[in-house]
Amino acid sequence: AMEKSYVSMFLLLVAISCALAKDAGKKETKETTAKPKLPQTLSRGWGDQLIWTQTYEEALFRAKHSNKPLMIIHHLDDCPHSQALKKVFAEHKDIQKLAEKFILLNLVYETTDKNLSPDGQYVPRILFIDPSLTVRADITGRYSNRLYAYEPSDISLLYSNMQKAQKLLKTEL
């Protein structure tokens, strides 16, 4: 009789723990689907108040039709250089203000367009494309081996390159 009660007690515990496990499983999936994640804005932290495009194709279309230059930032979430540049870029008031005059795109993946990696697929790299959809190979950072790389210490150079991209518009187009 004692054995029987142990067995039934054991089965009861198994049943309860199974039911609890099932509930816990349900709860997790319900929460992960229902709990609103913080919206992953297209800025990815590069300037939340700026308007960012979602795809390269959309960015090219908008640059062409708005007559604004396109600024493409290639970066990776787990790259310390990208993170450092992003922080300085996002906190730089003048850059954030000037960036409003650009079509903006930041990419955390490589595109198949070879024009966007004229000298290699490194990050972070920033390229400017004018409304005639020409990659501005003449607007570069200070490194001869990575022409479009910028570091946090290059932020004023990046700012002047953004100004240059704006000026080229007025003089060339």
Task: Please outline the helices and strands.
Elements: H1 2-34, H2 56-66, E1 70-74, H3 80-91, H4 93-99, E2 103-107, E3 125-129, H5 155-172
Parallel strand pairs: 1-2
Antiparallel strand pairs: 1-3
Helix pairs in contact: 4-5
CATH architecture of the domain at 61-107 and 155-167: 3-Layer(aba) Sandwich
Shape: elongated
Ends distance? 96 Å
Mean pLDDT: 85
- Helix-strand sequence: HHEHHEEH
Low-confidence stretches: 27-38
Question: SS-based structural class?
Answer: mainly alpha
User: Rounded to an integer, what's the Rg over CA atoms?
Assistant: 26 Å
Number of helical segments with 4 or more residues: 5
Q: Which CATH class of the domain at 61-107 and 155-167?
A: Alpha Beta
Question: What is the tally of beta strands?
Answer: 3
Give the CATH superfamily of the domain at 61-107 and 155-167: Glutaredoxin
Helix content: 40-55%
CATH topology of the domain at 61-107 and 155-167: Glutaredoxin
Major β-sheet, in short? 3 strands, mixed
Relative strand content: 5-15%
Q: Order of strands across the biggest sheet?
A: 2-1-3
